[in-house]
Amino acid sequence: MAVGIFDSGLGGLTVLSAAQKRLPDVDFLYFGDNAHAPYGVRDADDVYDLTVSAVHKMWDLGCDLVILACNTASAAALRRIQEGGLPKGKRVLGVFVPLIEALTERQWGDNSPPREVGVQHVALFATPATVSSRAFQRELAFRAIGVDVEAQSCGGVVDAIEDGDLILAEALVRSHVDALKRKMPEPEAAILGCTHYPLMEQTFQDALGQDVKVFSQGTLVADSLADYLERHPDMLGSGDGGYVTTGDPARVSDRATQFLRRQITFRSA
Fold it and tell me: Most exposed of 6, 180, 183, 261 (fewest Cβ within 10 Å)?
């Protein structure tokens, strides 16, 4: 039995790693659409089509529950997938929800009117596609009032991380933080709105300053998933765990092993 975790590339491995630590008895099937990565520079319709195709493949592989561990896919596709109707016994969840819950200190199912929250100035670092979607701001507005969100498109960071060039990635992060702070000099909180960015969390924190609370997704998503599975144990699925990719399995395996610093072996999707 396996829960599906989907990403366009390798970033979702940060979510997978946190979920495996939080839920050691649960099997996970990781699906990387590496042949079409990165999603962050694609338009919304393209991202939606690619995400739907991947989700259907994961359902076919026995994953009744699929986590979109990709902010770009969550921003462009999740609501459309859910509103379009899901097959009986199938669910698709995204990574925005735990972030919104943490920031607003209220559960997703709390449908009471928007209210003031503890922070008013929030920096959002994300891919160009996620920024242009304004999905985070839209979901936040349903639950909070008086929050100013300044979004910074972090071009190049994902490519640098996936290429293993952490020196370039760190330089890009510092540059993007500087650009953000020219627009919002004193953010109170920062959202790392891409599952690659936890690998650069300390760089973000150092550039922002220690007084800025940085929200990263791995642990938040893992805790949220644990709570969901406790309430819905029937969503564990029937398929096998493992790692599949639309890309070259040998190449993706090598990069994933470097990414997580432990042996990862992918097979063809």
Answer: 261
Q: What is the pLDDT of residue 109?
A: 66
Residue 247 carries which DSSP code? S
The residues near 210 (Cβ < 8 Å, ≥ 6 apart) are none
Catalytic residues: 70, 194
Give CATH for domain 98-216: 3.40.50.1860
Identify whether the C-beta of residue 91 lies closer than 8 Å to the C-beta of residue 66: yes
CA distance 31 to 121: 35
CA distances from 112 to 7, 69, 115, 125, 144 (A): 32, 27, 9, 28, 10
Q: Please give the radius of gyration of the chain, using alpha carbons only, rounded to the nearest integer.
A: 18
Residues 50-84 have pLDDT tens digits of 999 999 999 999 999 999 999 999 999 998 999 98
In the chain, where the domains are located:
2-95+218-268, 98-216
Evaluated on CA atoms 193, 196, 198, 200, the torsion sign reads: negative
**3-state SS class at 36:** helix
Stretches where the chain sits below pLDDT 70 are: 108-109
C-alpha distances (whole Å) from 45 to each of 14, 49, 59, 217 are 26, 6, 21, 25
Q: Residue 212 to residues 125, 157, 234, 269: CA-CA distances in angstroms?
A: 14, 21, 39, 41
* Cβ proximity of 223 and 23 under 8 Å: no
Q: How is domain 2-95+218-268 classified at the CATH fold level?
A: Rossmann fold (3.40.50)
